[in-house]
Amino acid sequence: MVDLKRQYVRFRDEIDMAIQEVLDSTAFINGPSVKAFRDEFASYLDVPHVIPCANGTDALQVALMALDLQPGDEVITTPFSFIASIEVIKLLRLVPVLADVDPRSFNIDPGQIEQLVTKKTKAIIPVHLFGQCAHMESIEDISRKHGLYVIEDTAQAVGTDYIFQDGGRKKAGTIGNIGTASFFPSKNLGCYGDGGAIITRDAALHHKIQAIVNHGSRTKYYYDEVGVNSRLDTLQAAILRVKLRYLDSFHEARQKVAETYDAKLRNIPQLIPPARVSWSTHIFHQYTLILQDADREQLRDYLKSKEIPVMIYYPLPLHLQDAYKDLGYRLGDFPVTESLSGTVFSIPMHTEMESEQIEYICHHIKTFLKQDD
Fold it and tell me: Does residue 333 fall inside a structural domain?
């Protein structure tokens, strides 16, 4: 699905030098590269505050911790996402409340959110899925009306631009009260291990989050908050500094791949290609299609036989997972999410793809679907 080896080879000299500098300095915890990446990432996002942390899941948990929510408070999010967004809500003894998604963007549907707001609702977590933003202006309107926090999960959308109705732009993760990022290796901005960051424009939240990620401490051995140990490793920060310089070019490469897929797979009745919404750029963390009137498992097996990887994001919605049965949701509660879970599939998408690879993948999809090449 991604080719991290070829990307590493392309930047080997810069990355090896960055790693060697960390090894030479032996500043492995909160070293200079962490601080430098923090500042460079904040500059890229055009925000005053970035707090690096150990991974994207920690980023979500710390964001919720910083808001002083109480057990039983409700947080609205999506059932069509990776588990982390609902997992951290439950870990903090909060209550996940789920809203169905828009069938075109796959992101949380603002029209479903407001009817779920109760006196216990305290926050909304929109997940910017597959590289495209949820409709943040509508979500922000709801949050202002009801006094709710907004935490943007940008694990799959670091660098995506949200486009406001007046033409203005902000990066994903910089619109709500807090944004969270993941630097898992397969992400558009990925390190060579785990890594994450928390983003905010709010000075008070920044002050609090800085302490929470460091055991709740601002001065060594003095603890002002209940915290966690969540630090971005200095080696990973050094790698991220190199890759951040090329992030926009990575996005351009992915967008070109997506355009080629679009052209080669258009007008196939069994396929619906990824939609592009008017309010967001799309950086294609995944290229995800909807399959109609064909057997997805047979397609996956056929492509696998041709050494073409296929991933299903996500085969079982969050509300139907065994670990979350206590929420009381049932099959049929979220028809759009359930339909997508049964029909979507993702094909290889990365910065190193060559035209021959794309041609090979599209040829075999068409062959399976009995379409002329």
Answer: yes
pLDDT means over runs of 10, the chain (373 residues):
95 98 96 98 98 98 97 98 97 98 97 96 98 98 98 98 98 98 98 98 98 96 96 98 98 98 95 97 98 97 97 97 97 98 98 97 96 75
Residue 189 CB neighbour total at 10 angstroms:
22
Residue of 339, 353, 351, 347 whose CA lies nearest to 366: 347
User: Closest Cα to residue 171, out of 285, 37, 257, 283?
Assistant: 283
Look at the chain and report how many structural domains it folds into.
2
- Say how far apart CA 214 and CA 105 lie, in whole Å: 37
Give CA–CA dist 254/24, Å, rounded: 35
Q: Do 267 and 296 fall within a single domain?
A: yes
pTM for the model stands at 0.96
Tokens of 318: 């969050």
Spatial distance between the Cα atoms of 137 and 139, rounded to a whole number of angstroms: 5
